[in-house]
């Protein structure tokens, strides 16, 4: 191929490039990345919706027991978490006893960190239903039933109708069906999950006695409230 | 040969980004929590990083798989991987008990799980190496880069692969 032909080829190539191709793509890509970051900023600044909280709760927690009790036990749990169920089986009775004798009040924080492990956001739904049960004053009974009927991870979880059944069994009035169906306390669950993350809770169950994290044994629990 | 390896590197890295990005993009709150769990960034920045990161990962995946701006995408991938390696190593050094949150777990461990820092570091370190190699030799097969530039892409031996300059 001669030099002249080569020049023609180059002209053709340059002609085809114009103002274009790579430049436009580069701008497009930069805009997309800027958009991603912009979205992050928007997401961060989005005003935290003020969600209604169930009766008798403090920030992100359901208080059980005498508010003036000497010790405060914070329990962070996810109703889909098998270890949370195991903790309930192991130390549930101890916790009830501490409440009954007035030694401690318990602040239960039902949070939703395992939504990805069910196809229906069971963690969120169960915790929101627990909010409904707290409203009705039957949280402790309902939580026990939820753990007794805990669905396996990776499945659909319990349907709302079953949550309502369990709540009724726990002693809630019929009106709880509306609360569960409306997802009245979903926003509250979102906020408590966020609050837990900000408080440095990186897993469930997390148990704090007077603000100090304790190991998940019954001995540790008893020792902490001595 | 290098071009074949670069193609595989693009697909591997792009595939990992796609998996990581899609796993997180459906639950951005979990992504924010995962970032927060490292306890490294100021709270003002945490939600921005947590929400933007999955989108950035998906974008990088698309660029790498399609072969658009392979070198910049590989450099950006290397920077991100380096940040992840530092984050995980620091979490390990500080004795935190977290999951890396790389694939959407929200950074949280169940009480009966042990952290997998060693494996996570090996994986991300390996991917960092792949990204660096790709940034060094980005020319590969089935990439749109050449088409975009409207000219042939030179491979490592200086040959014109297609188009201009066939003698």
Molecular structure report:
The complex is a heterodimer of chains A (226) and B (167). By secondary structure, chain A is of the alpha+beta class. Chain A has 2 domains: 3-45; 57-224, Glutaredoxin. Chain A contains 9 helices and 6 strands. In chain A, a hairpin with a 2-residue loop joins strand 1 and strand 2 (61-64). In chain A, helix 4 packs parallel to helix 6, helix 5 crosses helix 6 and helix 6 (160-169) packs antiparallel against helix 7 (176-182). The model of chain A has no long low-confidence stretch (mean pLDDT 86). Chain B is mainly α and 167 residues long. Chain B has one domain. Chain B is 62% helix and 0% strand. At the A-B interface, helix 1, helix 2, helix 3 and helix 8 of A face helix 2, helix 3 and helix 6 of B. Chain A: The chain crosses the membrane at residues 21-44. Chain A: InterPro entries: Thioredoxin-like_fold, Thioredoxin-like_sf. Chain A: It comes from Pseudonocardia thermophila.
What's this model, at a glance?
The complex is a heterodimer of chains A (226) and B (167). Chain A has 226 residues and is of the alpha+beta class.
What is the CATH first-level class name of the largest domain in chain A? Alpha Beta
Largest interface: A-B, 41 and 48 residues
Number of helices in the DSSP assignment of chain A: 9
Low-confidence stretches of chain A: none
Provide the gyration radius of chain B in Å.
Answer: 18 Å
Q: Number of DSSP helices of chain B?
A: 6
* Arrangement of strands in the largest sheet of chain A: 1-2-4-3-5-6
* CATH superfamily descriptor of the largest domain in chain A: Glutaredoxin
Radius of gyration based on Cα positions of chain A: 27 Å
The total tally of domains of chain A equals 2
**Quaternary structure of the protein:** heterodimer
- Whole-number average pLDDT of chain B? 84
Protein name (chain A): Thioredoxin
GO molecular function (chain A): oxidoreductase activity
Keywords (chain A): Disulfide bond, Membrane, Oxidoreductase, Redox-active center, Signal, Transmembrane, Transmembrane helix
Family (chain A): Belongs to the thioredoxin family. DsbA subfamily.
């Amino acid at each position: 191929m001669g030099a002249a032909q080569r020049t023609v080829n180059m002209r053709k190539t340059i002609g085809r490039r114009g103002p274009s191709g790579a430049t436009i793509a580069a701008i497009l890509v930069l805009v997309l990345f800027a958009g991603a970051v912009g979205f992050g900023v928007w997401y961060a600044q989005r005003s935290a919706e003020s969600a209604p909280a169930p009766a008798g709760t403090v920030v992100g927690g359901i208080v059980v027991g005498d508010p003036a009790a000497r010790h405060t036990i914070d329990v962070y749990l996810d109703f889909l978490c098998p270890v949370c169920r195991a903790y309930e089986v192991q130390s549930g009775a101890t916790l009830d006893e501490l409440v009954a004798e007035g030694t401690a009040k318990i602040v239960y924080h039902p949070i939703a960190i395992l939504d990805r492990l069910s196809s229906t956001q069971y963690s969120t739904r169960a915790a929101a239903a627990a909010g409904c049960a707290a409203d009705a004053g039957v949280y402790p009974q309902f939580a026990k039933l939820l753990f007794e009927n805990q669905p396996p991870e990776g499945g659909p979880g319990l349907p709302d109708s079953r949550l309502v059944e369990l709540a009724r069994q726990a002693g809630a009035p019929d009106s709880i069906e509306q609360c569960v169906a409306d997802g009245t306390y979903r926003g509250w669950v979102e906020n408590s999950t966020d609050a837990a993350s900000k408080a440095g809770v990186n897993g469930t169950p997390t148990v704090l006695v007077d603000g100090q994290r304790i190991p998940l044994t019954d001995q540790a629990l008893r020792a902490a409230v001595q | 040969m290098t071009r074949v390896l670069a193609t595989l590197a693009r697909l591997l890295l792009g595939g990992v980004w796609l998996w990581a990005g899609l796993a997180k993009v459906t639950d951005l709150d979990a992504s924010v929590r995962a970032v927060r769990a490292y306890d490294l960034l100021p709270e003002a920045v945490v939600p921005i990083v947590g929400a933007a990161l999955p989108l950035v990962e998906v974008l990088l995946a698309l660029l790498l798989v399609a072969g658009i701006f392979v070198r910049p995408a590989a450099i950006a991938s290397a920077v991100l991987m380096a940040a992840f390696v530092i984050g995980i190593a620091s979490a390990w050094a500080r004795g935190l008990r977290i999951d890396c949150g790389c694939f959407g777990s929200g950074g949280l461990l169940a009480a009966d799980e042990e952290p997998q820092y060693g494996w996570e570091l090996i994986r991300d370190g390996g991917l960092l190496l792949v990204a660096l190699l790709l940034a060094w030799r980005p020319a590969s097969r089935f990439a749109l880069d050449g088409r975009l530039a409207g000219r042939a892409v030179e491979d490592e031996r200086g040959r014109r692969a297609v188009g201009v300059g066939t003698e």
